[in-house]
């Protein structure tokens, strides 16, 4: 069909332009609302899981699995390694085979299966650890890759920086809502039976997949419906055959290792730590030396590499402080109030409450005020690193100054500062990466960002192997705090040169 002047009508372009101009979801495309509610269910699933999992690991049998605190921290980091490593495969599947929408749907079904395996009551320690191992295999296969992030970025024009920054901040809001409700409810319900928390996580994961399935056609048009760069049927058949063989061999090897105790837990953790360094480096090399990316788009690789290096340090902070602070709330804080003992995960909900306050505040500031619009993304990141270092000094100080159990107001103050600074600069890095992503490589660029977390978790495995006691772990926090301050100063110094290099030649 064409106009009278002979020009063809491109209905796909019309639909895409309609999405760009859609302001019906709080000034954003309605597709952001779908992805946001998906993130809400995702945060409920993971918050329910995280509210109890580390305690399930080091609680004695029959309540838990009887690992040491150091082993529990290493297992958490190892799961993070596997999760982000499989993002490479997941992003390839989303870009080349499934399309982002179907990757999100199938990925959440697999994730729900992992939670279900953990929800099964155990009758023996060996059975419990085997089910945990199988569950972590499912939970470490995010078939969706970085599809939610990439699909969010595609809802906006490249030049629409303010709305795109705000979109990722709104995702943080949805995540905060789930993080506010799930830990306090699930954590306290599950203090006597951790399997209840895992069952709730399974239901939430299925709701995430269902949300995408219901609205995938209505609000996204052709975005995410098909692979961006589909592989041929011959390649797909070959990859499917290889994947099936690898899966069967992997399951057989896992069975033999467990049956004959051929690989110790420490040996497995060291193997994963090695993979956490080698595989991301190979992925970075393949991406940055890809000759199919035009020269005009390759110029952004220099600032990308700098942002990735900074993100690796941030990932180390997350990998170390995440499990350590969960153990800190369990064994160091006074959690009794009027004779009632609150679950450690209650403090996660307090942090989420602060995030729920600060994220909307800064979303408004960045998008609706003249001052907010004038502040550059790099400036937000630098300030966030410098201010965010405070809790890394305060938490170990609280133990030194306290006699017996620590007053929880110390940690609540840290949560306030952390979420304030996270709202300032948290979404800026991923938003900048989305802005610079070469065409047809959007998901893989976001995967490169997540591979920083893989390296950080690999370092986390080594850290928890070295520091097996929570006291030793907390004493290392000030070192990370000093590094955070230096990173913030570095970002501010190189800001102008970085911003000049970030513009893609269209």
Rg over C-alpha atoms, rounded to the nearest angstrom: 23 Å
Strand ordering within the main sheet: 1-2
Extract low-pLDDT stretches: 1-11
Fraction in beta strands: under 5%
Q: Helix and strand succession?
A: HHHHHHHHHHHHEEHHHHHHHHHH
Q: Give me the secondary-structure category.
A: mainly alpha
What does this entry look like structurally?
With 506 residues, the protein is an all-alpha fold. Helix 3 (69-98) packs antiparallel against helix 12 and helix 13 (346-368) packs parallel to helix 17. It has helices at 11-20, 30-58, 69-98, 100-119, 125-139, 147-154, 161-189, 194-215, 233-260, 265-288, 295-298, 301-331, 346-368, 370-374, 377-388, 390-401, 408-425, 428-436, 442-466, 470-475, 477-493, 495-501; strands at 336-337, 340-341. Strands 1-2 form a two-stranded antiparallel ribbon. Residues 1-11 have low confidence and may be disordered. The two termini are 29 Å apart. Strand 1 (336-337) and strand 2 form a beta hairpin.
């Amino acid at each position: 069909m064409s106009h009278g002047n002979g020009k063809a009508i491109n209905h796909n372009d019309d639909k895409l332009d309609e999405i760009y101009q859609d302001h019906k979801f709080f000034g954003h495309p309605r597709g952001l609302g779908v992805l946001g509610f998906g993130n809400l269910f995702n945060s409920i699933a993971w918050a329910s899981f995280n509210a109890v999992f580390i305690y399930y690991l080091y609680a004695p049998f029959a309540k838990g699995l009887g690992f040491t605190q150091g082993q529990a921290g290493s297992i958490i980091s190892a799961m993070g390694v596997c999760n982000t490593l499989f993002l490479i495969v997941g992003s390839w599947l989303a870009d080349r085979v499934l399309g982002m929408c179907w990757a999100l749907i199938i990925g959440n079904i697999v994730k729900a299966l992992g939670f279900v395996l953990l929800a099964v009551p155990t009758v023996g320690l060996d059975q419990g650890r085997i089910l945990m191992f199988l569950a972590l295999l499912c939970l470490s296969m995010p078939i969706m890759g970085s599809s939610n992030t990439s699909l969010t970025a595609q809802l906006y024009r490249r030049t629409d920086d303010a709305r795109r920054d705000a979109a990722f901040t709104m995702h943080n809001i949805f995540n905060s809502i789930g993080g506010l409700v799930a830990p306090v409810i699930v954590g306290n319900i599950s203090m006597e039976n951790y399997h209840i928390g895992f069952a709730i996580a399974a239901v939430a994961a299925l709701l995430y997949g269902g949300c995408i399935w219901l609205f995938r056609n209505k609000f996204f048009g052709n975005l995410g419906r098909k692979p961006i760069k589909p592989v041929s049927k011959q390649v797909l058949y070959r990859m499917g055959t290889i994947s099936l063989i690898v899966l069967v061999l992997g399951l057989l090897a896992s069975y033999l290792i467990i049956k004959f105790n051929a690989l110790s837990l420490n040996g497995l953790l060291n193997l994963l730590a090695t993979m956490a360094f080698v595989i991301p480096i190979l992925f970075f090399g393949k991406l940055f030396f890809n000759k199919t990316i035009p020269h005009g788009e390759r110029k952004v690789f220099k600032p990308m590499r700098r942002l990735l290096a900074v993100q690796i340090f941030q990932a180390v902070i997350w990998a170390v402080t995440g499990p350590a602070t969960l153990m800190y709330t369990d064994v160091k804080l006074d959690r009794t109030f009027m004779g009632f003992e609150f679950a450690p995960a209650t403090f996660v909900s307090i942090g989420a409450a602060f995030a729920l306050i600060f994220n909307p505040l800064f979303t408004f500031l960045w998008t609706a005020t003249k001052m907010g619009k004038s502040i550059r993304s790099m400036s937000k990141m630098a300030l966030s690193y410098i201010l965010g270092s405070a809790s890394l000094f305060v938490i170990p100080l609280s133990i030194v100054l306290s006699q017996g159990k620590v007053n929880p107001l110390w940690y609540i103050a840290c949560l306030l500062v952390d979420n304030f600074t996270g709202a300032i600069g948290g979404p800026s890095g991923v938003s900048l990466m989305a802005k610079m992503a070469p065409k047809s490589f959007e998901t893989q660029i976001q995967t490169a960002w997540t591979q920083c977390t893989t390296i950080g978790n690999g370092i986390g495995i080594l850290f928890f192997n070295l520091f097996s006691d929570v006291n030793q772990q907390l004493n290392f926090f000030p070192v990370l705090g000093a590094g955070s301050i230096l990173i913030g100063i570095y970002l501010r110094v190189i800001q102008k040169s970085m911003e000049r290099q970030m513009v893609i030649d269209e």
